[in-house]
Specification:
This protein is α+β, with helices and mostly antiparallel strands. Strands 1, 2, 3, 8, 9, 10, 11, 12 and 13 form a 9-stranded mixed β-sheet that branches. α4 (about 195-205) runs antiparallel to α5. The chain is globular, with a radius of gyration of 23 Å. The chain has helices spanning about 35-40, 60-70, 150-165, 195-205, 215-225, 270-275, 280-285, 300-305; strands at about 1-5, 25-30, 50-55, 70-75, 80-95, 100-110, 115-120, 125-130, 135-140, 140-145, 165-170, 175, 180-185, 185-190, 230-235, 245-250, 255-260, 265-270, 290-295. Helix content is about 25%, strand content about 35%. The chain has 3 domains: about 1-70 and about 120-185, no CATH class; about 70-115, no CATH class; about 185-305, no CATH class.
């Protein structure tokens, strides 16, 4: 069953022939027609069966929600005080003639309506091969039940937003060779300790996508963690764009920093093989984190505390 268009609002008409309780797969067939779009998602000519990625948040509102989640803003409630960080500059006089420029990161309060964060669905896409040697792009199998209807609807709309088409496949009729998943969400930069000047150059495309006023604060946080001399650094790809992992495996410590405004620093104690295969939902789930450090004025002290 093939669905085309930009978006559907319900499953009732489009998936009426599907039997309740049937196991289905949302996917894409005839991939040669979508080679350019697949490249934008994160696949290329050398991608193999099993390669898996969280699509970037850049295709539209569905992919943005899928990768980043969303806030429900409660405009019927009184406003609350929130904080954003900025770099504050001032001049100090040292003696009668010498002026010294100073700066530090400060919290600036502002009023906003309360909000509830809705975690991202984090639907990943995987290259697979059928027993007829046809390359397909698929998502995990799901039972066609009422409980799963929201996930199925979201996944269909994700494909429609990116490709303008998707297929609803009956997993009993379309036999996929179950691939060993290999997630492509992280690119490891050259191994070894990297001076900040070199790392900054590597991260400049990520930093410069953020508003100019946020960049000094972002660079301060990235440089601070890099000064702790990680053994390697990994940069997020696809839906993990904007995330950077600083790895200290001998300490069983991995620090994940996000450049996007309003986020936090995540601290993990697992080894790299486990962390690199986590979904976005896993990363944001409190049960997997050792600590979560909010971007506030005590951030530097909290980071120092991890290494003392």
């Amino acid at each position: 069953m093939i669905i085309t268009g930009r978006r559907i609002k319900s499953l009732a008409r489009r998936l009426a022939p599907v039997r309740a309780g049937a196991t289905i797969v949302i996917g894409l067939t005839d991939l040669d027609r979508f080679s350019s779009r697949l490249g934008q998602v994160g696949f290329n000519a050398s991608s193999n069966s099993g390669d898996t990625i969280l699509p970037p948040a850049t295709f539209g509102p569905v992919s943005l929600y899928n990768a980043e989640g969303r806030d429900i803003v409660h405009r019927n409630q009184p406003k609350e005080t929130a904080y954003r960080q900025v770099e504050w500059h001032w001049t100090e006089w040292h003696g009668p003639y010498d002026r010294v420029e100073q700066s530090r990161i400060v919290d600036v309060p502002y009023e906003r309506y309360p909000r509830t964060f809705v975690p991202p669905p984090s639907v990943e896409m995987t290259l697979a091969t059928t027993e007829a040697n046809e390359r397909v792009l698929i998502t995990p199998e799901v039972a066609f039940t009422d409980a799963h209807h929201p996930w199925i609807l979201h996944t269909i709309n994700l494909f429609l937003e990116i490709f303008g088409e998707c297929s609803v496949l009956d997993s009993n009729l379309h036999h996929f060779r179950q691939p060993q998943l290999r997630r492509l969400n992280w690119q490891i930069l050259p191994q070894g300790r990297m001076p900040w000047k070199n790392l900054r150059s590597a991260l400049l495309p990520v930093i410069e996508r953020e508003p100019a006023g946020n960049r000094p604060v972002i660079q301060h946080r990235l440089q601070k963690v890099n000064d702790m001399k990680p053994e390697f650094v990994a940069v997020g790809q696809g839906g993990f764009d904007g995330y950077v992992i600083f790895a200290f495996p001998k300490r069983h410590l991995f620090i994940l920093e996000c450049v996007h405004f309003g986020n936090a620093t995540y601290v993990f104690g697992d080894d790299w093989d486990i962390l690199s295969q986590m979904t976005k939902a896993d990363v944001l789930d409190n049960k997997f984190q050792r600590d979560r450090i909010i971007h506030r004025e005590n951030w530097d002290e909290r980071i120092d505390g991890l290494f003392n």
